[in-house]
């Protein structure tokens, strides 16, 4: 189904709606992401950005509309959910590393358990990934012994270990001290350059401007505006987009 | 653009998340209900084949035909089984109520001693806690009954403590008040005192809210009640006379005689539970961080104010829930009375009545139902309390 | 833990002369002001009073002869003397297993190991022990040493797994030795559980009560946290029911009614087994509540991260959730196991001769009339030693693991 052509739509969201009780968190959100594309989602807090990308790997269940990831429709079918989760890696704001496992065990757990990979093979892959995110020497430490930036890089490596086609980033730098943000963004930028499809919720406008192919602005549960970075930072159409950008820049 | 209707695609039922969820619940329910039915049908056939009886509570109105050593209400062997059950229940309440009061008092003392800066005092408290938390309650109870109260001298050589209190192997005789004709009037006066106290506390609270300086409302309340009570006691012609026990031949006369079983059970429960309560109190006080203390001091509160306004309210929040569960434990533990011959609920119902009537199902239903309602009632009240005092946190 | 007395911070402000001297210590901790001094004097009086009472009783009035005379009974109940070698073998094997485990887990001969090794030698000093008993204790000590050295000579990669297998094998061997097998005239004639008694039975009940109730309790805790309502309701009803009634009522019910619930001829006839069932069902509800505390302490992010990686609910429970939840509640669980050990005494009330049951038969024996204080004091001390060492060990482990620290 999926070839690595840049024209293929790897994520299709059509009229996605989500309610928390009476509160509608997502209103008819539609977005199509091409393979190898980097899409950055921005917007004020509470605008539904996180909810949106959490729907894509079913951490939240959407109640109306369609989500199709790499040709697999996201329904109540448990097999489809499993497949989509193994195609889409996710990086969280709070890292969510497993504190009782070493860095190495954090990375190899899912490949061994889910992909039924051999332990040695999984460790080899893990070492490769740790090299890639620049902290091979931390393999035997526990997450609690690492700095925030290092933890987030481990979390990225952990997701990559499942060799996903898509990476979802949910405010990956928001819980970090300023001096550590860059090391994580560098890893993400390098990842984007290798052609990974990425969907990134962030407040880092520098990153958005430099790395994003397209930027999505969300407010009040709706997708207000979609466009290239140049379009966004030079002539945004929507009033609320302009207001948001003026506040944040 | 391709047409998409992903949500209209229905997965096969064996892969449908929702179906799987319902199915696994059904599976568990079927297993549990099936097991229950299996036990129940075994029980019914067993009862029919072996004993030829059906479940019925009608035996409760038959004459019990056995005596009970001590009772708070009038009881004799001619009364019904139901009456006997109630006698046991009241005895359980009595032990639990007194046990809770004394265990709390002792527990608080030991818990505070444990935190004392005096090395010796805190050592004594921690030794007490370490000893009694690590000995089985049943061993303690039987020890207390058989190695202490049973070993007390005969009545003629009773140990006399000031009071006078007579300690002998027949039990403990203590002075006891006997209400006179004016007792009812005195109770009325006391009730008036409580009312007055309540009114005064209400105004004090309002004033406190207005000025922002909370007076010691509880203290004022108690002082009012005591003052009114004292006046009533003096004005009325002796609402109560003191009946003191005295030796006469081989027995004590007068006063109130607490049986040695009762005393053994009560003191065992108190000593044991106090060790646990002490730990609860200590943990509660220590849970209030040093920062809170320092903040209070730097605001200029004196130590007494710090204790009353800052430490105590916060410590109480931590203390109350585990304290309640200790109270429940004490109540449930009082069922060990059966080991030392005190006729509490379990000893009367689970032992005597059950042995006489052979009504296992009915008696266990009643016993467990009673204990269960007590526990559920307590945790219900606890939940309300917890909701009320919950700190508003994000 | 902070102790109230002598924190380092107030030490540093004192004049040098008062810091380390005995007098300085006394002044600071006992006689800092008038009130404190009064308190100290009262406390000293209290201690002297109690100590005199206890010492006079223990060394003058008490007749300790009852203990040595009934020592075997207290230790193993009615377990036949001719088969006592089986119990010794179990103890020797335990020594060996502990030695091996120590080498596998800790790997070094540290302070606690020395205490463990000292135990048999200290016991050998007990004056009324027969030569044979002392010899057996010596063998146990030797067995633990052999186990330690043997485990050291092995090359084992997965130590945790090796330890688990070792324990499992030991359990099976222990049960076979205890229960016996084959003909009545054979090498190991069967010994019915009702004959097991004394300390032996108390320890067995506690051990099996713990091991059997633990998995059940974990399942119930997971059930109570489940998002499927039916499973949650069933777990809650079970837990709240059991926690609402006294253990004694369950034990009586087990003796009287278990038979009624089961079809005719179901092999659960043994008193001890029926008591064990009641204890297990009882303890599981409490384990469930304690484990639930641990489950609640785990952030939602952990579940989400596991989900996002594609782990199934079962996999994330086994690999992510339970290891963290259980580690967080180790101290509470140890406390619960101690109270379970203490609660096993209740079986004495349903005609089983555990430590307390045996004590009651001894004092009912006309030869030993009036020895209640001695007998009960002795078994109280036995219980105390076991419970206290458990809680002490747990506190030490807690400190080393840093559990419960923020």
What distinguishing features does this structure have?
heterotrimer; A: 249 residues; alpha/beta; Rossmann fold; 6-stranded mixed sheet; 4-stranded antiparallel sheet; 9 helices; globular; disordered N terminus; B: 394 residues; alpha+beta; MetI-like fold; two-stranded antiparallel ribbon; 11 helices
Short description:
Chain B: This is ABC transporter permease subunit. The complex is a heterotrimer of chains A (249), B (394) and C (406). Chain B has helices spanning 17-51, 81-114, 119-133, 137-149, 183-211, 217-235, 260-287, 290-298, 303-333, 345-357, 360-389, and strands at residues 159-161, 165-168, 171-174, 176-179, 240-243, 246-248, 251-253, 256-258.
Secondary-structure map with pairings?
The complex is a heterotrimer of chains A (249), B (394) and C (406).
Chain A: E1 9-20, E2 23-34, E3 38-42, H1 49-56, E4 64-69, E5 72-73, H2 78-87, E6 88-91, H3 103-113, H4 119-132, H5 148-160, E7 166-170, H6 178-193, E8 197-201, H7 205-211, E9 214-219, E10 222-227, H8 229-235, H9 239-248
Chain B: H1 17-51, H2 81-114, H3 119-133, H4 137-149, E1 159-161, E2 165-168, E3 171-174, E4 176-179, H5 183-211, H6 217-235, E5 240-243, E6 246-248, E7 251-253, E8 256-258, H7 260-287, H8 290-298, H9 303-333, H10 345-357, H11 360-389
Helix pairs in contact in B: 2-3, 2-7, 2-10, 3-7, 4-7, 5-6, 7-9, 8-9, 9-11, 10-11
Chain C: H1 8-12, H2 16-19, H3 22-29, H4 34-61, H5 66-69, H6 71-76, H7 84-105, H8 111-124, H9 131-153, H10 159-179, H11 198-225, H12 229-244, H13 247-261, H14 271-296, H15 300-308, H16 313-328, H17 330-343, H18 355-364, H19 372-401
Helix pairs in contact in C: 7-9, 7-10, 8-9, 11-12, 11-14, 11-17, 11-18, 12-14, 13-14, 14-16, 14-17, 15-16, 17-19, 18-19
Explained architecture:
The complex is a heterotrimer of chains A (249), B (394) and C (406). Chain A contains nine helices and ten strands. With 249 residues, chain A is α/β, with parallel strands linked by helices. Chain A has a domain at 7-93 and 164-246: P-loop containing nucleotide triphosphate hydrolases (Rossmann fold, 3-Layer(aba) Sandwich). The longest helix of chain A is centred in the last third of the chain and has 16 residues, at 178-193. Chain B folds into three domains: 2-51; 87-175 and 258-391, Orthogonal Bundle (MetI-like fold); 176-243. Chain B is built from eleven helices and eight strands. Chain B has helices spanning 17-51, 81-114, 119-133, 137-149, 183-211, 217-235, 260-287, 290-298, 303-333, 345-357, 360-389, and strands at 159-161, 165-168, 171-174, 176-179, 240-243, 246-248, 251-253, 256-258. In chain B, helix 2 (81-114) packs antiparallel against helix 3 and helix 7 crosses helix 9. Chain C is mainly α and 406 residues long. Chain C is 74% helix and 0% strand. Chain C has 19 helices and no strands. In chain C, helix 11 runs antiparallel to helix 12 (229-244) and helix 12 (229-244) packs across helix 14. The longest helix of chain C has 30 residues, at 372-401. The radius of gyration of chain C is 25 Å and the shape is globular. Classes of the chains: A alpha/beta (249), B alpha+beta (394), C mainly alpha (406). Chain A binds chain B through residues 12, 14, 64-68, 73-81, and chain B through 4-7, 9-12, 15-18, 20.
């Amino acid at each position: 189904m999926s070839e690595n052509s840049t024209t293929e739509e790897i994520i299709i969201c059509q009229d996605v709606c989500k309610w928390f009780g009476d509160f509608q968190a997502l209103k008819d959100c539609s977005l199509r992401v091409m393979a190898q594309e980097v899409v950055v989602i921005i917007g004020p807090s509470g605008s539904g950005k996180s909810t949106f990308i959490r729907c894509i790997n079913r951490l939240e269940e959407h109640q109306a509309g369609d989500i199709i990831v790499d040709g697999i429709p996201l329904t109540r079918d448990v097999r489809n959910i499993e497949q989509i989760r193994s195609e889409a890696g996710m990086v969280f704001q709070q890292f969510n590393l497993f504190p009782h496992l070493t860095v190495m065990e954090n990375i190899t757990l899912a490949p061994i358990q889910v992909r039924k990979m051999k332990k040695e093979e999984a460790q080899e892959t893990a070492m490769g990934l740790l090299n890639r995110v620049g902290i091979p020497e931390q393999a035997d430490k526990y997450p609690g012994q690492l700095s925030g930036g290092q933890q987030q890089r481990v979390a990225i490596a952990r997701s990559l270990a499942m060799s996903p086609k898509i990476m979802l980033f949910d405010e990956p730098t928001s819980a970090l001290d300023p001096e550590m943000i860059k090391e994580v963004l560098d890893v993400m930028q390098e990842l984007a350059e290798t052609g990974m499809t990425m969907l990134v919720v962030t407040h880092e406008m520098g990153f958005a401007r430099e790395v994003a192919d397209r930027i999505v602005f969300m407010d009040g549960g709706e997708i207000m505006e979609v466009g290239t970075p140049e379009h966004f930072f030079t002539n945004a159409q929507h009033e609320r987009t302009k207001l948001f950008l003026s506040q944040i820049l | 653009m391709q047409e998409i209707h992903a949500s209209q695609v229905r997965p096969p039922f064996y892969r449908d998340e929702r179906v799987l969820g319902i199915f696994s619940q059904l599976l568990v329910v079927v297993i549990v209900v099936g097991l229950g039915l299996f036990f129940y049908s075994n029980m019914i056939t067993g009862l029919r084949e072996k004993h030829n009886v059906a479940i019925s509570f009608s035996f409760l109105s038959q004459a019990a035909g056995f005596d009970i050593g001590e009772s708070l209400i009038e009881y004799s062997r001619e009364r019904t089984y139901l009456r006997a059950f109630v006698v046991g229940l009241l005895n359980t309440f009595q032990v639990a109520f007194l046990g809770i009061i004394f265990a709390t008092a002792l527990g608080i003392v030991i818990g505070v001693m444990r935190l004392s800066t005096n090395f010796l005092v805190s050592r004594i408290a921690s030794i007490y806690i370490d000893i009694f938390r690590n000995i089985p309650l049943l061993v303690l109870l039987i020890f207390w009954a058989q190695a202490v109260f049973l070993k007390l001298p005969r009545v003629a050589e009773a140990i006399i403590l000031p009071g006078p209190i007579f300690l002998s192997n027949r039990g403990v005789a203590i002075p006891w008040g006997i209400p006179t004709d004016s007792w009812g009037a005195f109770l009325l006066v006391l009730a008036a005192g409580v009312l007055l106290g309540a009114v005064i506390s209400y105004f004090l609270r309002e004033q406190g809210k207005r000025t922002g300086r909370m007076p010691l409302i509880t203290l004022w309340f108690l002082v009012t009640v005591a003052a009114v009570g004292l006046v009533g006691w003096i004005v009325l012609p002796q609402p109560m006379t003191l009946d003191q026990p005295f030796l006469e031949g081989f027995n004590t006369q007068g006063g109130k005689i607490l049986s040695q079983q009762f005393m053994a059970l009560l003191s065992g429960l108190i000593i044991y539970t106090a060790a646990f309560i002490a730990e609860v109190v200590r943990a509660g006080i220590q849970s209030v961080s040093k920062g809170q203390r320092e903040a209070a001091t730097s605001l200029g509160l004196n130590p007494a104010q710090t204790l009353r306004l800052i430490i105590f309210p916060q410590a109480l929040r931590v203390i109350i829930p585990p304290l309640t569960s200790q109270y429940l434990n004490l109540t449930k533990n009082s069922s060990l009375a059966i080991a030392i011959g005190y006729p509490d609920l379990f000893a009367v119902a689970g032992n005597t009545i059950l042995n006489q009537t052979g009504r296992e199902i009915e008696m266990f239903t009643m016993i467990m139902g009673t204990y269960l309602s007590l526990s559920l009632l307590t945790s219900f009240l606890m939940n309300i309390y917890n909701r009320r005092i919950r700190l508003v946190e994000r | 833990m902070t102790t109230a007395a002598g924190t380092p911070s107030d030490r540093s402000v004192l004049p040098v002369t008062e810091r380390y001297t005995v007098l300085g210590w006394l002044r600071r901790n006992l006689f800092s002001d008038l009130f404190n001094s009064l308190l100290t004097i009262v406390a000293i009086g209290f201690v002297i009073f109690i100590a005199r009472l206890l010492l006079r009783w223990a060394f003058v009035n008490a007749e300790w002869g009852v203990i040595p005379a009934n020592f075997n009974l207290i230790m193993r109940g009615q377990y036949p003397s001719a088969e006592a070698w089986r119990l010794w073998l179990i103890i020797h094997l335990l020594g060996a297993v502990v030695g091996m485990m120590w080498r596998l887990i800790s790997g070094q001969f540290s302070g606690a190991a020395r205490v463990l090794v000292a135990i048999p030698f200290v016991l050998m000093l007990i004056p009324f022990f027969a030569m044979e008993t002392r010899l057996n204790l010596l063998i146990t000590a030797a067995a633990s040493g052999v186990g330690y050295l043997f485990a050291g000579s092995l090359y084992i990669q997965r130590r945790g797994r090796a330890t688990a297998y070792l324990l499992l094998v030991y359990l099976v061997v222990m049960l076979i030795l205890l229960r016996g097998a084959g003909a009545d005239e054979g090498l190991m004639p069967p010994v019915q559980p009702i004959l097991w008694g004394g300390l032996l039975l108390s320890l067995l009940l506690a051990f099996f009560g713990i091991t059997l109730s633990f998995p059940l309790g974990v399942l119930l805790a997971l059930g109570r946290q489940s998002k499927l309502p039916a499973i949650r309701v069933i777990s809650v009803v079970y837990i709240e029911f059991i926690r609402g009634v006294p253990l004694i009522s369950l034990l009586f019910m087990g003796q009287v009614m278990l038979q009624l619930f089961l079809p005719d001829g179901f092999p659960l006839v043994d008193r001890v087994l029926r008591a064990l069932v009641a204890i297990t069902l009882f303890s599981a509800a409490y384990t469930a509540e304690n484990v639930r505390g641990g489950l609640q302490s785990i952030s939602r992010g952990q579940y989400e991260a596991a989900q996002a990686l594609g782990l199934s609910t079962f996999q994330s429970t086994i690999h992510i959730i339970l290891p963290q939840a259980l580690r967080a509640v180790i101290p509470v669980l140890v406390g619960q196991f101690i109270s379970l050990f203490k609660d096993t005494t209740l079986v004495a009330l349903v005609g089983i001769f555990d430590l307390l049951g045996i004590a009651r038969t001894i004092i009912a024996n006309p030869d030993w009339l009036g020895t209640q204080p001695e007998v009960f004091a002795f078994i109280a001390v036995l219980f105390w030693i076991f419970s206290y060492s458990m809680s002490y060990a747990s506190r030490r482990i807690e400190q080393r693991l840093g559990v419960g620290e923020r």
